[in-house]
Write a structure and sequence with these properties.
This protein is an alpha+beta fold. It has 3 helices and 6 strands; from the N terminus they run H-E-E-E-H-H-E-E-E. It has helices at residues 2-23, 108-117, 119-124, and strands spanning 31-61, 67-93, 96-102, 136-142, 145-150, 153-162. It has a 6-stranded antiparallel β-barrel with strand order 1-2-3-6-5-4. A hairpin with a 2-residue loop joins strand 4 (136-142) and strand 5 (145-150). The chain is elongated.
Amino acid sequence: MNWRRIVLGSALLASSCGTTWAGKKPKPVYQDGVLKNFRTEQQGTVCSTDGNTNGTVRATTDDYGSTRGTVDATSTASSSCAPRIVAFYTVVIGDHTFVLSPIPKPIGIFGAYKAAFSGSWEAKNSVLYGLLPGTPIQMVNKDSNVYIKVGKRESEYTIVSMK
């Protein structure tokens, strides 16, 4: 009977350690690099339209259920367009040169719209935005994209090209 307690206790200990060991993920290994240069490019335009319609409906229905009438309406609308600007950053990690473009992260309801259409929003929310060539960076590959870290800030990028 005592050996059963030992076996059961050992099994519980092993299962709890296994869960703990399996739950630990390896820390990502960042590679040191440098921002070589950056450029922006216009890729299409972003347009939006806003408008209102006001009106009156005058209708009558006869004994057979047929409805006839008139509609008086006034509509106003305005549209505006702006260039969609996309940022490209060239970074050097060891012997490799990468051209990266930021991946926007939508924030709130309007963030999804901005993420889909506004390139300037993408550039300004990049950790590399506003940095000068020669700035030290760190890069790590996670899934199919890369993350660039400058100080404590980090942004996600897609690899456009690599040499």
